[in-house]
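Data follows
____________
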Amino acid sequence: MNNLDKIFLEEKTIQGFSRSYFKYLNSVLKNISLDEIERFIKVLLAARENDATVYFIGNGGSAATASHFANDIAFGTRTYNPPFRIMSLCDNQAVITAIANDDGYEKIFSSQLEVLLKSDDVVVAISASGNSNNLINAIDTAKKIGALTVGLTAFDGGKLKKLVDLSVHVPTEKGEYGPAEDAHMALDHLIGSYLLRLVKI
C-alpha cells in the first residue's frame, strides 16, 4: 500500500485528503537532491553554450511535461543570443503514429533520434516508473550516438535511472503517479524560473 492509499484510508473527506496530499507532496519535494538539480541545470547551460539541442521525451503525463519543459526553457527564458535549443519529441503526432504503425511503439523516440541527434546533444527522458521500453530504447540509441543522457524518474527509478549519465530522482513509492508528476512539473518551473533570471545577468 503506497502513501496515497494510506492517506485515503485515513482521510476520506475532500479537505482532509487534500490537506494530507499537499503535506506528502511537500515531503517528496524536500527529498529531491539539490545536487542533482544543479547538475541538470549545468547540463542545460553547457548545451546552450555549445549550440547543442536538448531533446525531451516521455509518455502520457510525462509527455505533457516534456512539452512543457520545451516551452518553458526554449521560449520562457526569453533568451535568443544564444538560445536554448530545446525540443520535445512527443509533439509531432504524424511522425509518432507513423513510426508506431510501421515499426512499433517502442521505437517512437529512438527512430526520431536516429534522424535528429548529434553527439554533442542531450536527451532527457521523463518517467515515473523508469521502465518504458520506448524510453530505454531512446537512451540506448543516444548512447550509441554519443549524446549525454538525463533521466527524470520516480518510484525506484527503474531501468532508466541506472542507464542514464545523470539522474534527477523524485523519491516516491511505486504507483504514486500524482506526486511523481507534480514534482517533475515543479522541477520544470524551478529550472525555468532560475534560467529566466540567470540569463538576464
The first strand starts at residue 53 and ends at 58. Residues 177-198 form the longest helix (22 residues). DSSP finds nine helices and five strands in the chain.
